[in-house]
Design brief:
By secondary structure, the protein is α+β, with helices and mostly antiparallel strands. It is 17% helix and 39% strand. The chain is built from 2 helices and 11 strands, in the order αβββββββββαββ. Strands 1, 3, 4, 6, 9 and 11 form a 6-stranded antiparallel sheet that branches. The longest helix has 26 residues, at 2-27. The protein is globular. It starts with a helix and ends in a 5-residue tail after the last strand.
Amino acid sequence: GFSCALILLASTPVYLACIDTLRMEHDFPLIDSFETRWGIDRWESNGSTIERSESHPTHGTQALKVSCNPGIYPGIGMKRLHGDWRGYDAFTFDVFLEGGKPLALVVRINDAKHNHTYHDRFNKGYILAPGSNHLVIDLSKVRNAPRGRAMDMGEITGVVIFSCLLPEQRTLFFDNFRLEIFKKF
């Protein structure tokens, strides 16, 4: 009785991760829209705090509220994602920026072969305007970003979004991370 309860309790995080992995497979090419409580566990924060929020969703009723603290590289990163991006043309997401002034953000994407150097991944800066922003990242540019090789689009393992040398706290709301195929006419 008691030992079974302990085993069940200990296996709950593994069970929830398995359920979340099945949900990711089911929802793909939607990568995340923060509609489930445990989906936030796919994300980690660096120099910021994260929570689900009903403010500024663009897909469903929830968004990811990110409060970036002053620092060198405050932001967020995906710990777990569906990594086979072959056959898609764009990685897109929505971000709402609070406050009255723009904010520079960097999006970094890497694959399983990433050697942890700057030139072996996709890095691109964007300037967010206050309010609603929709980012569209051309996956052919991601594929060709590493110096001397092509990114393995079948094994994407990292997405990191951050600001550089942030002098003051800023709040952003992210939603509707997805892969898209450009319509051909």
